[in-house]
Design goal:
Distance between the termini: 25 Å
Strand order of the largest sheet: 2-10-9-6-5-3-4
Strand content: 15-25%
Oligomer: single chain
Number of strands: 17
Number of helices: 14
Bound molecules: ligand T4K
Shape: globular
Radius of gyration: 23 Å
Low-confidence stretches: 383-395
Length: 395
Amino acid sequence: MIKPFDRPIHVSRPWLPPLEEFHRGLAEIWDRAILTNDGPVVQRFRKELAGYCETDNVCLFANGTLALQIALQGMGITGDVITTPYTFVATVHSLFWNKVRPVFVDIEPEHYTLDPEKVEAAITPWTSAILGVHVYGHPCRLPELEGVAQRHNLKLLYDAAHAFGVRVNGRPIGRFGDLSMFSFHATKLLHSAEGGMLTFRDRTLRRRFDYLKNFGFENEVEVVMAGTNAKMNELQALMGRLVLERMGEIVEKRSRIAEIYRRELMTVPGIRAAALPAPGIEYNHAYFPIEVHEKEFGASRDDLYNGLKEWNVFARRYFYPLVTDFACYRGIVREGELPVARGVASRIIALPIFSDLELDDVARICNIIRHIQERQRPLPLSRTARVSNIPVGIA
Ligand code: T4K
């Protein structure tokens, strides 16, 4: 009998620094009484991130969504942008807020990122950019997308909300394409409670982004563009700095969790994980999604999702429903389009993965999954026959 967990196990849980370390940083902030508006902690965090991401072109924000909205506006993206339906809804909302039309194309089935051939086929004279998503931290097909963007003279942007820490052939993921957006939300590897970052190729953009996130202020008496307020504050930056120091440990622990899931679950009929990262990719283990193939598994993805809750395990169906099925985007694509994304969304479930998750607990979650499978599987034909032979009334 597998006992339920005595506390909820969520899909994610932020790594928190020792409280004394946070207190020490807070004491300095208290002394200065500078809480926001590009204070010294934000500036230090920016410098450290520039080192980590190997580029000086780094800009920090209050959250990832605002960062992406400002990126699109600052780069002057208009018309149509080709993107994926298989993402968190904020990717598409950011286009909408810039009055840009999303053109959805299907994903590839190995890592669930944009299919470059389909991207190329969807280009029209109105296309201005491609917005790929490194979903779950798996890099998009970078050389292929780069090729498509170059051939058609399009901007290439990445929603890298999940991909902090990923490197491709030794190069940080934020150095591909024209621009990348990272989220530092509490559920992310590197978090600042809420927060976001842009890294970009054209260094002149930094000035525009800085204006746009600070009301367009040039100085006390001049406003040069219609900006908004999207600044990261000092408390966020303090948290971010302390988490950044521990990135190595955080990724290492997650990789051990992922290893157990793979070892324990890949032999379970009907369960499939995303393909392993291609050679040359240093992966961050941001998520551990599995696909549940109902026929072979003997139970549906939703049976598993609901079943896990009985054991106090709260996995999440990231990313279901598809963005294109939300009320505000319904009607953009026709039924039957995006078959790969639609199929994956119906089978996907993201299992708990976070630094404080004990390895024994990962094994326990795997046992629970196998148990749910056993419980849900229809009885083999011979047993069904036996049961149905029992006279009514006695059964
Ligand atoms: N692009 C992509 C591809 C994204 O995935 C996201 C965000 C964005 C853009 C936008 O970036 P931000 O503007 O958020 O920086 C969560 C996050 O809110 C969201 O940041 C994230 N993607 C998305 C995939 O997941 P929810 O609604 O599923 O989160 P929530 O609050 O249910 O949290 C999940 C679990 O994590 C909870 O059940 C418990 C645990 N948790 C959560 C929080 C907030 C904690 O243990 N502590 C916490 O403080 O959206």
